[in-house]
Amino acid sequence: MTNQPLSDTRVRDAKGRPLVAVTGLGIVTSLGQGQADNWAALTSGRSGIHAIRRFPTEGLRTRIAGTVDFLDTDPLVAPALSQRFAEAAADEAIAQSGIGRPGDFPGALFIAVPPVEIEWPQRQALAEASGQTGPITYADLQRAAASRRFDPWHDLFIFGTVADHIADRFGTKGSPISLSTACSSGATAIQLGVEAIRRGEVTAALCIGTDGSVNPESLIRFSLLSALSTQNDPPEAASKPFSKNRDGFVMGEGAGALVLEDAEAARARGATILGYVLGCGEKGDGFHRTRSSPDGAPGIAAIRAALEDADTPPDAIDTVNAHGTSTPENDKMEAMSCAAVFGDRIRTLPVSSNKSMIGHTLTAAGAVEAVISLLTIAHGRIPPTINYAVPDPAIPLDIVAEARDVPVRRVLSNSFGFGGQNTCLVLADEPA
Prior knowledge:
Organism: Methylobacterium hispanicum
CATH architecture of the largest domain: 3-Layer(aba) Sandwich
CATH superfamily of the largest domain: Thiolase/Chalcone synthase
Strand content: 15-25%
Radius of gyration: 21 Å
Order of helices and strands: EEHEEHEHHHHEHEHEHEHEHEHHEEEEE
Number of helices: 13
Domain Ketosynthase family 3 (KS3): 17-429
Low-confidence stretches: 1-6
Protein name: 3-oxoacyl-[acyl-carrier-protein] synthase 2
InterPro entries: Beta-ketoacyl_synthase, Ketoacyl_synth_AS, Ketoacyl_synth_C, Ketoacyl_synth_N, PKS_Beta-ketoAc_synthase_dom, Thiolase-like
GO cellular component, one term: cytosol
CATH topology of the largest domain: Peroxisomal Thiolase, Chain A, domain 1
Structural class: alpha/beta
Distance between the termini: 22 Å
Largest sheet: 12 strands, mixed
Number of domains: 2
């Protein structure tokens, strides 16, 4: 990173609220651990999507994912994986920020975690422990649980436990906030941190999005929704956002972490400011549990809300870090939403999707992509959307097919989730 402390001395935005500065970043994806490894891979167009080795995939329509296989984690279940990824990302972000003392973070924790439930291997073990060979009732499972053999699972599988462990390890203040707003969760965690700082409740926030949900049950559920790509060979070519031959998303894993601070407090302690979260926009609709509203209205509203919150006109955005899942419907809806906001400029406004290389990291996506957006600003280089070989004539966007070196001061980062949960962020090098 080449950032130096910024010379701008403003501490409040145009609306009179405390400016929210970013002083630390952390990232883990299938491309590697840390900013350096991820940035090198992203800008060289290298994919982290590969054949799944964690569990057997024979008979499955989709056999690929962007799994994180290089961090020791036991057991290999979503809560444990999500916690491990969050720890690694937070370690990096807090170290870079230089805030507080080890294990004594002087602010709140906002963490997006995947919905937690007992997975198939654990369900089978519990059923076998019931001693029943025929149909198993809830009472049978209660008797098995009463044996106390499964007490360690209680801590592992209770929703919110990941947040508790992260709070204990890093010494965050107040009650840790766990949230899950589908694929916009990581961005929502950042939004909550921004709002807490603006209200004056805290001067610092640790915001994390994490997800380790690549398991047989999740894979099958998404497959039954016809949401996943079935182009298994070669794996790295499967995720192709905005291409005419896209056929679904590829599951990914990882975590993104940001240390946010009141800009005045950050400057007072001599912190290096990496950028600012200028605006957050969140809009939802009840159109469908999984499908996007075909008129794009919620996406349009979320983008406009983020720009208005940032006091930033559309013309000031230099690039869009797209949600870009590679599903036929979502990519079309996002293109429509961007066109409605940016008008004819959308044909020349660079748009890129990191999911082409890391897959869809689900709950973590908004935070992971916010980190990548801030790295884009720092380095003045837009990572490519790989596999963009067959443009879709119905999506007239300027898709960055190869890494592009251009000055970048403001990025719009989109996160659109199942259930119509949409969150957009405006990230910048300096205050508006």
